[in-house]
């Protein structure tokens, strides 16, 4: 093999090595994804139910809103149109896990939560945003933030 051929071979080998390393790094970092849909109990109702379905990378977990002494809390904040208000949010029960001498409360599998809003005032439609702040964890926790937007009609 001549000098040019060896150089091309080495460059190709380095590209393969970098591709393998980036694939491994991506698999070692967990991620969280979610979808949000809305529905009214009737077309004339002022009450809207928002359903958020949350999924995370298998083998990873996120903390509950009250995760315990050492957990990272998951926080949900809303950005609503003027004169709209939040009535209630229903989260599923988290799973307890023992870490050392402490118990943490977490979600390690897909889950869903429902939130009810009232569309008061003259505007019955508009954009709604849910902002989820979380730490996705395996051996360590990585902070994250996810914003979901839905245009309620």
Describe the protein:
With 153 residues, this protein is an alpha+beta fold. The chain has two domains: 1-28; 31-152, Immunoglobulin-like, CATH 2.60.40. 16% of the residues lie in helices and 51% in strands. It contains one helix and ten strands. Strands 3, 4, 6, 7, 9 and 10 form a six-stranded antiparallel β-sheet that branches. The chain has a four-stranded antiparallel β-sheet with strand order 1-2-8-5, with no helix packed on it. A hairpin with a 2-residue loop joins strand 6 and strand 7 (102-107). The chain is elongated and about 55 Å long. Mean pLDDT is 84; it is low at 4-27.
Number of separate helices? 1
Pick out the low-confidence regions: 4-27
Assign a percent range to the helix content.
10-25%
The geometry reads as: elongated
- In total, the number of strands is 10
What is the arithmetic mean of pLDDT? 84
* Percentage of residues in DSSP E strands: over 45%
* Through-space gap between termini: 68 Å
Question: Cα-atom Rg, whole angstroms?
Answer: 22 Å
Structural classification: alpha+beta
Order of helices and strands: HEEEEEEEEEE
The overall number of domains is 2
CATH topology of the largest domain: Immunoglobulin-like
CATH class of the largest domain: Mainly Beta
How can the largest sheet be summarized? 6 strands, antiparallel
CATH architecture of the largest domain: Sandwich
Report the CATH superfamily of the largest domain. Gamma-adaptin ear (GAE) domain
């Amino acid at each position: 093999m001549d000098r040019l051929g060896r150089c091309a071979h080495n460059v190709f080998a380095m590209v393969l090595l970098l591709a393998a390393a980036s694939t491994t790094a991506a698999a070692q970092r967990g991620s969280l994804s979610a979808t949000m849909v809305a529905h009214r109990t009737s077309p004339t109702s002022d009450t809207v139910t928002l359903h958020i379905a949350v999924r995370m990378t298998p083998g990873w977990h996120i903390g509950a809103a009250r995760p315990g002494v050492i957990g990272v809390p998951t926080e949900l904040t809303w950005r609503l149109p003027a004169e709209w208000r939040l009535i209630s949010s229903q989260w599923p029960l988290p799973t307890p896990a023992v870490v050392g001498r402490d118990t943490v409360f977490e979600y390690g599998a897909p889950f869903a939560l429902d939130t009810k809003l009232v569309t008061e005032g003259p505007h019955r439609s508009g954009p709604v945003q849910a902002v989820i702040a979380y730490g996705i964890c395996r051996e360590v926790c990585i902070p994250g933030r996810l914003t979901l937007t839905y245009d309620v009609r």
